[in-house]
Design goal:
about 180 residues
Length: about 180
């Protein structure tokens, strides 16, 4: 455990000292976003454009996280235990790409539909069966939505494809069993 904490501290310190625009805390065994990071990064949080928290053990992202890192353009939350996003995600006006693959979403995280600059959403390997077609169709800049390895039903596939002006990635349909 001490080794993991030291690794997180080093990565945060490197970001602060070098004033880089990204914070990579992937594979750090985080169960929550450490509160101490907010204070440690206070002087550079507005300059952070990319954060990776991939392959941790996060069950939620807080509104404080979203409001602290308000200038994000890319957010990688792949490989966690997330099942929802805070409403405040809509305040990320510059967010262009979000990776939520390999999480626990049962439905499309609807707050994403009102993130104005969003171009790419990766929701591969979740548990999403239905989609808010009307909301997706209104996402002006969305170019790609990856829903591979989700239990999206055939009726959703038929409804969504003609309505959305972006690339929709789905797993091949399973053939119907013969009676």
């Amino acid at each position: 455990m001490g080794e993991a904490v030291a690794r997180v501290a080093k990565k945060v310190n490197d970001t602060v000292e070098n004033k880089t625009d990204s914070l990579d805390l992937a594979n750090c065994k985080l169960m929550t976003f450490p509160v101490g990071i907010y204070k440690a990064m206070r002087s550079v949080s507005e300059g952070i454009r990319r954060i990776s928290l991939a392959n941790n053990e996060l069950k939620s992202i807080t509104s404080r996280f979203v409001t602290t890192f308000s200038q994000l353009t890319e957010l990688n939350l792949a490989g966690n235990y997330l099942h929802r996003l805070p409403e405040e995600i809509t305040s990320l006006l510059h967010l262009r790409a979000i990776d939520l693959s390999r999480n626990r979403f049962r439905r499309f995280p609807e707050p994403l539909a009102t993130v104005p600059a969003l171009e790419t959403i990766d929701l591969e390997e979740n548990e999403i069966a239905e989609l808010p077609t009307d909301k997706l169709a209104s996402m002006a800049l969305l170019r790609s939505l990856n829903l591979r390895a989700n239990p999206v039903g055939p009726e959703v596939r038929l409804l969504v494809r003609p309505l959305v002006p972006f690339e929709l990635l789905l797993s091949p349909e399973e053939p119907l069993p013969k009676a």
